[in-house]
Design a protein that fits this description.
The protein is mainly alpha-helical. Helices cover 54% and strands 7% of the residues. A hairpin with a 4-residue loop joins strand 1 and strand 2. One of its GO terms (molecular function) is calcium ion binding.
Length: 309
């Protein structure tokens, strides 16, 4: 079960791993919290646009890295007053989350498009994800996984040509971003958690087989936190999640995540407490921003021209 929205909503890259392959679908945003703490490695990656960009950024001199960060800050400062307010931070991070999904999908697309025709066929997906040799008879769990993926693949294939272009591939890999895919996400969650098959998910089913991580002092504390999140999804307060409430559970609330991260940055860097971030406040602790979700536009830090510096 996904962590509470208050702990991420960048949401969750839910990768199902088998002994022979990485199961791509469905793919959500990765946690940027580990044991209740900001995962600074992930934060840096989403800031800079991915692992490759983060690695290359590490090679820059301190002066050049600061210059690149300031170019980015100017981009976020939409009204040009030299300060970043909460709305500017939130709006820019909303763009960042979308960019992260698109770029991640674009990175994986060419590795799966084996015949390089600009589309991914079902056979190409199977070969890349499950291996050239696989036996559904030998592994029923894998067979079920394949059938689930087949449903999502067909739904993502909007033009019904049996293949996915880049846009359709994004819908397949990030179904939580597409309303037309939400029905299948809800079905999948009900299949996983609706143990008594009544079409609803109660609190015990919501918890599923999950166990508390090390950030909780006890199982009781963990259950209290999870119950609070469950109650937020349970809009009618009947102790069960219907399909509409499950949809809220399995789809991302980017604005909430962006607002939380903006508030985090302001609380850490707004030294004069004027609810704005000045260039001086930002540059006094540049690492804070390299550990934030401020810019999936971090690709800008990697690709901008020298003239901008």
């Amino acid at each position: 079960m996904e962590l509470p929205a208050c702990t991420v909503v960048l949401l969750l890259w839910q990768l199902s791993i088998t002994t022979c392959h990485v199961h791509i679908h469905p793919s959500h945003y990765p946690d940027h919290y580990v044991d209740g703490e900001h995962d600074t490695e992930f934060d840096r990656e989403i800031l800079l646009g991915g692992k490759k960009e983060a690695e290359e950024y590490q090679k820059l001199s301190p002066e050049e890295s600061k210059q690149r960060l300031m170019v980015l800050v100017k981009k976020v400062d939409v009204n040009g007053d030299g300060l970043l307010d909460r709305d500017e931070l939130v709006d820019h991070m909303l763009e960042s989350f979308n960019t992260y999904s698109v770029e991640e999908a674009r990175d994986t697309f060419p590795t799966i498009d084996l015949d390089e025709d600009g589309k991914v066929s079902w056979e190409e997906y199977l070969q890349d994800t499950f291996g050239a040799e696989y036996s559904t008879e030998a592994d029923p769990a894998e067979d079920e996984m394949i059938q689930d993926d087949r449903r999502f693949f067909q739904q993502a294939d909007e033009d019904d040509d049996g293949k996915l272009d880049e846009v359709e591939w994004l819908a397949f890999q990030h179904p939580e971003e597409y309303v037309r895919m939400h029905h299948f996400l809800v079905e999948e969650k009900l299949e996983e958690n609706d143990w008594n098959e009544d079409g609803l998910i109660d609190f015990d089913e919501y918890l599923g087989d999950d166990e508390p991580d090390s950030s909780y002092s006890s199982e009781e504390e963990w259950r209290i936190v999870e119950k609070e999140q469950f109650d937020e999804y349970d809009k009618d307060g009947n102790g069960q999640l219907d399909s509409e409430e499950v949809t809220t559970w399995v789809t991302p609330n980017h604005r909430e995540a962006a607002e939380e991260e903006a508030d985090h940055l302001l609380s850490m860097a707004d030294s004069n407490q004027d609810k704005h971030l000045s260039a001086e406040e930002i540059m006094s602790d540049p690492d804070l921003f390299l550990q934030s979700d401020l810019t999936e536009q971090g690709e800008l830090l990697h690709t901008m021209d020298h003239e901008e510096l």
